[in-house]
Amino acid sequence: MALQSLRGTTDLLPEDVKRWTTVEQTARRLARAYGYEEVRTPLIEDAAVFLRSVGETTDIVQKEMFRFEDRGGQDIVLRPEGTASIVRAYLEHHLHKTHGFVKLFYLGPMFRAERPQAGRFRQFHQYGVEAIGSASPWVDVETIVLCVEILRACGVSDLSVWLSTMGCRDDQHATSATLRKQLEPYKDTLCKECQARFDRNVFRVLDCKNPSCQAIVREHVRPLKPRAGFPPTPFQLCDACAAHFDEVRKGLREANAPFDDTQVFARGLDYYTRTVFEVRAKGLGAQDAVAAGGRYDHLVEEFGGPPTGAVGFAAGIERVLMAAKDVQSPGAPDQHRRGVYLAVLKPDFTGLAFLMAQVLRKSGVTALIDFEGRSLKAQFREADRMQARWIGILGEKEASEKSVTVKDLEQGTQEMVSIEDFLKQMTQEAGAPA
User: Which pLDDT score, from 0 to 100, does residue 228 have?
Assistant: First the structure.
């Protein structure tokens, strides 16, 4: 039987990586523009990092974590999400003491043992941000605006922002009792997962993607309206949480960032408080969330740190690419040709071509060489496939005159120049790194 990649994983071939790189570079560039600094945490973590943060009733903990004992008997997991790892690093490296308010960006693979389906894999990839150290509603506003800006820059144009609030811990405690009372008559018709979690975390029903559970929520959860002009919500909000949410909505309007605050939903991880949001995109089917996040004002404290406001979001790169309209698709050519292809007409000239390529590469120029002794026509085809801007031809005549025939594939011109002038010209004209 032929060896294949594991179910729920995928290989990224060179043409796929071009699209991925576009998303990664776009996310990194815009996060940096908003003052976020990149961090990288390990792929493996102590299981306690997630058991004490995301919640024992979540799908992640109950059935999705890749969890095992290492040789020393320590309980290990492959990280299923990014926020808990970032908070662990924030405290472990005393950033709360040395920096206070920090804005951190991350990017990399996550792992969940869920059933693979369109846009959902066992190894998947996320980019995300975490702003830790502020309770200001304007940080919520900035986070949501950044999330949408990155998605739009990646080509996800047909999207909507669902916005809500889950209140503080006291609000959630009061709300859970009311929700159970409203949903109790329909408990037996909920999906098995919601039935199992009903008594421990009824908010999971609000987060369930099962169509029948969603219909029950729409029909039987009676949202409250704390005061005039406030959107209906199933959460019983204290004055402080209602005021915080008002400020977030006001800030988004001032930023000209459209949102929908009429939807009844909740985020499934236990650490969320106050503002929560999901960005939904067309073209992803029933599970259409492409990015999501919210505020988690108690997580740092639950990890042993001081009371600390925090908010963030994460986006799945696979899902961004599924929803994107303008990101370069596999097989499509780059917008601009770049770099040099050195076509060798005789194997004797390969050594010279290699030395020339090294000079160019050290100057930041992409330089490619044929090592297979293919025909000139075949080398031209390869140069075109690799989207090279110039072809430098080394034949008998060129070698005898210490020259190179330079063909510009973008301009359609051709000339013979000395090797010295060729290297100087390519370094100047193609010097921008590919």
Answer: 67
Q: How many CB atoms lie within 10 A of CB 107?
A: 20
Residues 206-212, mean pLDDT to the nearest whole number = 78
The alpha-helical segments, DSSP class H, found in 363-418 are 376-385, 396-400
Contacts of 421 (CB under 8 A, 6+ apart): none
pLDDT value of residue 329? 46
Distance CA 238, CA 293 (A): 22
Helices (H) and strands (E) in the chain, counts: 17, 15
- Residue among 297, 335, 248, 349 at smallest CA distance from 135: 297
**For strand 340-344 and strand 310-316, is the pairing parallel, antiparallel, or unpaired?**
unpaired
User: b or e along 308-329 (b: 16 or more beta carbons within 10 Å of the residue's beta carbon)?
Assistant: bbbbbbbbbbbbbbbbbeebbe
| DSSP per position, 318-329 | HHHHHH-SSSPP
In the predicted structure, residue 5 carries a pLDDT above the cut 70 = yes
d(CA 277, CA 258): 12
Summarised one tens digit per residue, pLDDT across range 331-388 is 444 456 788 999 999 888 888 988 898 898 888 888 888 888 889 999 998 888 888 8
Tokens linked to 196: 């199992």
Q: What angle do CA 349, 378, 332 make, to 5 degrees?
A: 120
Higher pLDDT, 175 or 109: 109
Q: How many CA atoms lie within 13 A of 24 on its CB side?
A: 14
pTM: 0.79
b/e burial code for range 331-351 (CB count within 10 A of at least 16 → b): eeeeeebbbbbbbbbeeebbe
